Amino acid sequence: MEKQKRGLLPYLFLFTLTYFALGFVSIVFANLAIFCVATPFVLLSVSKKKLWCQHYCPRASLLNQVGRKKPWSKSPLLIRTGRARTIMLWYFGLNLLFIIGSTTRIALGKMEPFAFIRLFIFIPLFPLPQLIHLNLSPVLLHLSYRFYSMMLSSTILAAVLARIYRPRIWCAMCPVGTLSNTLLK
Ligand code: SF4
User: Which of 131, 148, 164, 168 gives the lowest tally of CB atoms within 10 Å of its CB?
Assistant: First the structure.
């Protein structure tokens, strides 16, 4: 059984790729990000270990694939000093605040939904072509694009760092990993 589980781990990155591909089927699938964020903490509370980070994280699996090249480079000072971790925590906190605030305004009819991808909060791109056209409410449409944008932004950043430095350098600044460490303490 253990052997079987280990055998699947190198392929977990397919979940990440599937997540982004599903956005082209219908953007509503982007809300699966809620499970991606919640599952590590559920596992942590049950096992008192970072099971997700150690065994099941699809993003870590993707980064192992992306950052295969060697030799790996020394981590930048920003990461070695832990400052990047703090910056990412603030970035995710602000991102979540923005998502909650903008979604509330849309629900109150004070704002139109942003029905397009926006990288790193500030870089507007385009709406995704949709294989299935669902009649989503403005709130759900906005929320779906915001989650997709958040996941895409962090995956791009993590992949670029993996190529430049080493595969899982992102884990040194990942907010899920940081919060998991804090909870374990
Ligand atoms: S630190 Fe983040 S990216 Fe790394 S394994 Fe944990 S959840 Fe995945």
Answer: 131
Residue type, 142: H
- What letter would DSSP give residue 32? G
Mutate to test the pocket of ligand 1, among 171, 173, 182, 183 (most ligand atoms within 8 A of CB): 171
CA of 133 to the centre of ligand 1 (A): 33
How many H-runs (helices) and E-runs (strands) does the chain carry?
9, 2
- Kindly state if the Cβ of 53 falls inside 6 Å of ligand 1: yes
**Cα–Cα–Cα angle for 124, 32, 108, rounded to 5 degrees:** 60
> Would you tell me the crossing angle of helices 83-107 and 138-164 to the nearest 10 degrees?
160
Provide the terminal-to-terminal Cα distance of the chain, rounded to the nearest Å.
Answer: 31
DSSP bridge partners of 118: 124
- Whether 26 and 130 have beta carbons less than 8 Å apart is answered as yes
Task: Identify the H or E element spanning 123.
Answer: strand 123-124
Find out whether the beta carbon of 172 lies less than 6 Å from any atom of ligand 1.
no
| Residue ID of nearest Cα to ligand 1 atom 5 | 53
pTM of the model: 0.92
pLDDT by residue (tens digit) across 99-157? 999 999 999 999 999 999 999 999 999 999 999 999 999 999 999 999 999 999 999 99
Q: Which atom of ligand 1 is nearest to the CA of 158?
A: 3
